[in-house]
Write a structure and sequence with these properties.
Layout: H1 13-22, H2 34-37, H3 89-94, H4 110-120, E1 166-169, E2 184-187, E3 200-203, E4 216-218, E5 223-228, E6 231-236, E7 242-247, E8 254-259, E9 265-270, E10 275-279, E11 284-289, E12 296-302, E13 305-310, E14 315-319, E15 328-330, E16 337-342, E17 349-353, E18 358-361, E19 370-372, E20 379-384, E21 391-396, E22 402-407, E23 412-418, E24 423-428, E25 434-439, E26 446-450, E27 455-460, E28 467-472, E29 478-483, E30 487-492, E31 514-517
């Protein structure tokens, strides 16, 4: 076989593979390839005379291609991955008597339809004509209708795609925003997307529908404590193991639970006015304090100091290191104390009551140092900002429906947001400047807010009763909500902290939906 063919003469099929490895392909056009007919690059020198053999051409006169060279995909075996389109009648006639190519493979598999829709959208129009990169289909073949995988070309081009619309394959986006549900989502410059359904549901029999109780808390060791009737149960978020911590007996009920910061000791407030301290690692009660005359519905820890709020209108400070049942007694509320939270620096205690009052105390005061009377219903929802010192959020009950923000450093009322329904709980994200609120009458919803604009990032529904209980995971990404419908629902609402390592404390970030019993 003569390897010294002329530059202008087309090589034989057996010469194609050898010639491709020795020199770049020439920019001559082929009748059945649009891309091949385009000028891939501008030669930097005049090509050799047609009568001069290619092997005899001097290096100076040989065609040199720039970095804009676009390779031909004519020899690609697209049929190997089932990516080639179905041949048209014209292609079948043209291909008669020749070896089958990648363009004759079918594209009827679900993978082809899925990939085409994922890359270019389900309503992508056909590209006019065909090209060598488009599975070598004939340019004279008519364009097939959109949405017909068996006849259309899988590589279609959308007319207008925004530059900032980045498609992520196989990433679970919101159902309302996904162009192809369950496959990918369009991620632009808009707000963060939050899943609208819980990823886990636990049945919690006998979870009380009482606005003034606080029966759910999440420890720093990733253990959830839940008061159900006269018992307290512990649910390990990593292993899903359920442990029965205590049983108060038939004559008493659990009204509140609260973890100490270390996550090893749990305080339990009872209907008879008792405050019990339990060692959760040994499931052993280490102390009982009987100083309140009525039920204890609110608990808050500050290091070794435990504060308890009661229906007897008082707040007691218990130092678990001291022998006395309590070390100080705070008076000021005219009705039941139902909300109690220490600030992150442990310098201020906020209390809310059924008297519609919000008070702020310092560690050594027995009278409130700040009094806020703007709410027109019971104040149970209280949350301190972890991002700004002295920023306090509070929420009112059914007759109020408002979330209010206060600067306790300057003693000023900052803003008010009418939510339209009873505010049951508030918690601030530790990772971003956002907060979540849970609501009762009449919508029973969960709302994620961005502060300070108070724009809604998400409204989550699913509970059929008032969402009375709320706690946040130790990594700050997941919240759990409880309601009188006797369910606990877990939601992924906040992003991970920027400095979070891969070995996170949280084991509850699964996206699969699950439902089980907590006892």
């Amino acid at each position: 076989m003569d390897h010294h063919h002329h530059q202008g003469a087309p090589p034989s099929p057996m010469q194609n593979s050898a010639a491709a490895s020795s020199k770049p392909p020439t920019p001559t056009s082929t009748p059945n390839s649009r891309l091949a007919s385009l000028p891939f690059s501008r030669p930097s020198s005049t090509p050799p005379h047609p009568s001069t053999p290619a092997s005899a051409a001097s290096p100076a006169s040989r065609t040199i291609y720039s970095d804009r060279f676009i390779p031909s995909r004519t020899g690609s075996n697209l049929a190997l991955f089932d990516l080639a389109p179905s041949p048209s009648p014209h292609d079948t006639a043209a291909a008669s008597g020749t070896t089958a190519s990648s363009g004759s493979a079918t594209a009827t598999s679900p993978y082809c339809a899925l990939l085409r829709a994922a890359l270019f959208g389900p309503d992508t129009p056909d590209r006019v004509g065909s090209s060598a990169t488009a599975c070598s289909s004939s340019s004279s073949a008519a364009a097939s209708p959109v949405g017909t995988p068996s006849t259309g070309n899988i590589f279609r081009f959308k007319a207008e795609v925004p530059r900032n619309a980045k498609r992520a394959l196989f990433s679970g986006g919101d159902d309302e925003d996904a162009l192809y549900p369950g496959v990918f989502s369009t991620r632009g410059a808009g707000p963060r997307k939050i899943a609208r359904s819980p990823y886990k549901v636990l049945d919690a029999p006998a979870l009380q529908d009482d606005f003034y109780l606080n029966l759910v808390d999440w420890s720093s060791h990733n253990v959830l404590a839940v008061g159900l009737g006269n018992c307290v149960y512990l649910w390990n978020a990593c292993s899903s193991k359920v442990t029965k911590l205590c049983d108060l007996g038939a004559d008493d009920n659990v009204c509140s639970v609260g973890w100490a910061q270390r996550g090893t000791h749990l305080a339990v407030g009872t209907n008879q006015g008792k405050v019990q301290i339990w060692d959760a690692t040994r499931c052993k009660r280490i102390r009982t304090m009987e100083s309140h005359r009525q039920r204890v519905g609110a608990l808050a820890w500050s290091s070794s100091l435990l504060s308890s709020g009661s229906r007897d209108k008082t707040i007691l400070h218990h130092d678990i290191r001291a022998q006395d049942d309590y070390v100080s007694k705070l008076t000021g509320h005219k009705s039941e104390v139902c909300g109690l939270k220490w600030s992150y620096d442990n310098r201020q205690l906020a209390s809310g009551g059924n008297d519609n009052r919000l008070f702020v105390w310092n560690p050594h005061s027995v009278q409130p140092v700040l009094k806020y009377n703007e709410h027109t219903a019971a104040v149970k929802a209280i949350a301190w900002s972890p991002h700004l010192h002295g920023l306090l959020a509070s929420g009112g009950g059914t007759a109020d429906r408002c979330i209010r923000f206060w600067n306790t450093t300057t003693n000023t009322h900052l803003s008010c947001m009418d939510t339209g329904s009873q505010v049951c709980n508030l918690v601030w994200s530790k990772n971003v400047n956002e907060l979540v609120s849970t609501h009762g009458y009449s919508q029973n919803q969960i709302i994620v807010w961005r502060y300070p604009t108070m724009s809604k990032l998400a409204t989550l529904t699913g509970h059929t009763y008032r969402v009375l209980y709320l706690a946040i995971s130790p990594d700050g990404q997941t919240i759990v909500t409880g309601a009188g419908d006797e369910t606990l629902r877990f939601w992924n609402v906040f992003p991970s902290p920027k400095s979070q390592s891969s070995d996170s404390l949280s084991c509850v970030g699964a996206t699969s939906y699950a439902r089980s019993y907590i006892r």
